[in-house]
Structure formats: C-alpha cells, structure tokens
Write a structure and sequence with these properties.
The chain is mostly helical and 223 residues long. The protein contains eleven helices and no strands.
Length: 223
C-alpha cells in the first residue's frame, strides 16, 4: 500500500478522535447502544460503502457518531445533535462534510417507521448498517437488553403488536420485547436501502423468525 495523502492522514486522525469521543459517550450504556454496537455499525458501514461505491469517510464518521446524538443516550435529539455539531466544529472537518454527517445522524433512526427515505447514498449505507445490527442473533440480544433496561416484559400474550403514527408515540411505547420484533425488527429487511444490505438482511431475518417460532413453542409448553 502507498503512503497516505495529507487528506487521508487527516481523515485517519479525525476518525481516531471520533472513536475516542464515541467510546467515552457510550461506555456506560447497557441498553444495546454501547460502544460495541457502534463498532459493529462502523464495520458494516465500511463494507457496505465499499460494495455500493459510497464515500467511505463520511459513512464511517457518521457511523461512529450516530448514537452520541441518540435521544436514548443524550436525553433528547436536539441536545445530542448539538453535541455532535460542536465536536465536529472542533475537528479539521470541512463544513460540507460536517453538514452531511449531521444530516445522516438526524434522519436515520426508525422513529416508528414513518420517516422519509434517506437523502443520500451515504445516509442509506449508515442506516442500513445500523438496522442490520438490529437483526439476527445480535439483534435478538440487543432487543432483550433494551427491553430489560426499560423494564419491559419479555412477552404479554394479552397485548397485541401496534403500529405507530408518530415518532413521539413510538418513543413512548412500553410494548413487550416480543412485540418489538413485530413492530420494528421484522420490518427492517424490506426497508434496506442498498442491495448488499438486503442480501445480508435475509439470513438475519430468517434467524429471527426461527427464534420467534421456538419462543412461541416453548411459551406454550410444546417443546
């Protein structure tokens, strides 16, 4: 490999600083939005960006910072986004890159499933990477970690899954963790933005369906 250009060296420095920033912000999380979630999303974003021809630097930077701004971590979205903007302003990051990264972070969350499509390929890549980490074996583990952190029931057979008409209603939900699969996680496969993410999502989706089938059978004492 050749020597890094000055621009590449600067980007490497910014990404290293973003990792430190994200680690510090998320190190105490136990809801499934911890540093290791971010590390996995970063890895997936790199892979999908390469497969889809997106700007890898923007994708990786947005992936590293995306949960620093999450309302579940920051308390509310406005505070979280302001924190990200201030951090970006302290780094050698071009204004156009900062604006793109903040736009991705501000619009990628599920929010009940009623949000508009991502505006750029890079946004789609980061959203896909984040959503893929909500699927499969890791998605199952994260779902129960999040439910436990919010005091939610594993399952309540008297409570039907819901659909949500607003982000506020979705955020206020106290639905059981098993309902969360039907209200969000099983919907994600068909909402991927990129072909590569759709391919990855297929196997993870099937794994969750198999888990839910086994859960239902055990719940009813069938095996």
């Amino acid at each position: 490999m050749g020597q890094e250009t000055p621009q590449e060296a600067e980007q490497t420095t910014v990404l290293a600083a973003a990792e430190v920033f994200a680690r510090e912000a998320l190190s105490r999380d136990s809801s499934g939005h911890d540093w290791w979630h971010v590390a996995r999303v970063r890895r997936l974003a790199r892979i999908i960006a390469r497969e889809e021809g997106a700007d890898g630097y923007i994708c990786e930077l947005a992936a590293l910072l995306h949960d620093v701004a999450d309302y579940k971590i920051a308390g509310d979205e406005e505070t979280g986004l302001r924190r990200v903007r201030e951090w970006l302003a302290s780094q050698p990051v071009a204004q156009v890159v900062s604006e793109h990264v903040v736009e991705i972070i501000a619009t990628l969350s599920f929010g009940g499933g009623n949000r508009p499509p991502m505006a750029t390929l890079e946004g789609g890549v980061v959203q896909d990477a984040d959503r893929l980490d909500a699927l499969g074996a890791i998605g199952i583990a994260r779902a129960f970690a999040f439910g436990g952190s919010r005091g939610r029931a594993l399952f309540d057979p008297d409570e039907a899954p819901r659909s949500y008409t607003s982000k506020a209603a979705y955020h206020a939900s106290t639905s059981s963790t098993i309902n969360h699969f039907h209200e969000k996680l099983l919907l994600l496969k068909d909402r991927m933005n990129t072909a590569y993410a759709r391919w990855l999502a297929e196997a993870r989706h099937r794994y969750m369906l198999a888990f839910l089938e086994e859960f239902a059978a055990e719940w009813e004492g069938e095996r």
